[in-house]
Amino acid sequence: MLVKELPLPEKALVVLSEEAxxxxxxxxxAVKAGLLDGKNLVIAAPTxxxxxxxxxxxxxxHFLSGxxxxxxxxxxxxxxxxxxxFKSRYGKIGMRVAISVGDMDSEDVWLKNYDLIxxxxxxxxxxxxxxxxxxxxxxxxISDEVHLLDDASRGPTLEMxxxxxxxxxxxQILALSATIxxxxxxxxxxxxELVKSDYRPVKLKKGVFLDNFIHFGNEKIAISNGHKDQxxxxxxxxxxxxxxxxxxSTRRSAEAEAEKIAAKIPVASPELEKIANDIERxxxxxxxxxxxxxxxxxxxxxxxxxxxxxxxxxxxxxxFRAGKINFITATTSLAFGLNLPAxxxxxxxxxxxxxxxxxxxxxxxxxxxxxxxxxxRYDKEGEAILLAKSEAEKSAMxxxxxNGETENIYSKLSVEPVxxxxxxxxxxxxxxxxxxxxxxxxxKTFFAHQYGDxxxxxxxxxxxxxILKDFGFIKxxxxxxxxxxxxxxxxxxxxxxxxATALGRRVAELYIDPxxxxxxxxxxxxxxxxxxxxxxxxxVEMMPLLRVKQKEAEDIETALESSGxxxxxxxxxxxxxxxxxxxxSLMFLDWMNETGEDALLExxxxxxxxxxxxxxxAGWMLYAARELxxxxxxxxxxxxxNKVRLRVVYGVKEELLRLVLVRGIGRTRARKLYSNGIKxxxxxxNDPEKVKELLGIKVAEKVMEEIGRSAIYGAEEKETDV
Length: 722
Hints:
Low-confidence stretches: 479-493, 710-722
Radius of gyration: 27 Å
Oligomer: single chain
Number of strands: 19
Structural class: alpha/beta
Largest sheet: 8 strands, mixed
Strand order of the largest sheet: 10-9-8-17-14-11-13-12
Shape: globular
Number of domains: 4
């Protein structure tokens, strides 16, 4: 089917034709299955099979009909990638494209004016909790990477969001998935047609590398270039003027492998020198990791993981796409979402440390890694290669990953921590105001569809309701109100009305686990910043904490003894977790006392990207603690918590808070100003020449412009309350 034959207006066809003249098999099958007629569809097809164009056809049709579309993504980075792509392509025909992936304490009213909204699953969940009125106007919901329903951490939120959106709107559902064994189950749950395809525009060859031979089934290809293992494959890739992704199981391995590849297979160019310099300068003061990465990039390779700051990751991604970086070593997280293909994918590790020790990586994850091999418009075929150390291991890999099927997708909704958050959200948004309504809602989930009943979930929900009541987050009325306890009401087969308290509503809006909220409420008044940090780090949202290594245990325990904190006994089961909370708190204290990233990396083993993530999470949890204190009417506690929060966010001592709140004055500039007598905003305003001398003319002028806005003064006083 030709694109120009689609039943869409001419201006839509012109834009689509820029992407493809002819629909490929899964795209044509989607149209024939009712994509443009408003039917629900599940598209299960390999990576790079054109699923995004199917989504584009759908939201174009809704836009031209006056509808509103929501495009759900599992990762913020993927959301940003889609936003840039769609805004550039469809903004020129008048489509208003927005992205909303942060700020979990807002209903984002402004989104009502947009035609296509790209949102993370968690942000959409938050918007539903805030009762965003524009949700009822949504006519199309696109769920990207819907197979992540199986992910224990992200799947339940996606499942709840899709269940609520189906209930709150009459939207068409389009779910995009990798090839999975039980895609028909997801289609059945969503009342959707299943479009399943193995089509791939670039042929994918899957094999195992052993003793310098690639085994593609019965085909055996020798690689003889003086290297062994992944290095032989990388050298062969470079000799072909191609690129490769190398997947390993840990961040440390990613860095070590990249360094080895750079040493064994170096290349050099002026372009790489510039990229390396930009990477090294991504932070105000380069860390040991920055310098290490830059050195590797100068030789044509790179590592990629969450320990890098966003600017470094983007530089690596963009320059790999541009063909300037030859090799990236990465953890499995890079296999999901981002469009970062290579001619060859090399999977070094097929096992990783999981809950109960080392175990095989699921087939579906290996399949996602494989899917990065083969670049449309560049390669006629892609190669995905596993590394084996013996003939027995080669045979096992072929059986499991080359010839085996991907695993079934299973709902992960029946987990108490998940239910705590979502049950409270359903009650606080008045979506479910009785046990019967909760049963009705959960009967429409993927869990209920998959297992046939929800009694397991309902028994846990009853327990959760008791917990929420004990915390003071919900109350009940009617017959059960005279019984004094919630459980007997259930035993008497009554269905008490459920009502959220003001405190419960705020907890749901803040998007934190009710268990964490209760802990914060109990510890809303503390004597020191360290105590507030310890309270925060005890919450599940701050996981994973920094782990105390054996060689540093004595130093950490000595610091603990002098801290004045009450600690569990060394033989207590919670002692190791407590030490992790304490080490993480010490890292934050050093950060708040203006210690640089390089020193933190040396002292605590926390990479800049990791520090940024923990700082963001800490800022949110302290914001939540402040809001809960305000809800309780404790303004004094709220003020103290807010000071700690701002110091964590900006990484400064309390004396610099007023200065760093001005855009353009980071902690380094604030310290420079303060040390030279510019201690308050009034000082900046009264001595502009000195500010220019200290910061430079251009920076100083921007700072003065910011301070000149009267709103800054009010915002400062309100924000710091000091």
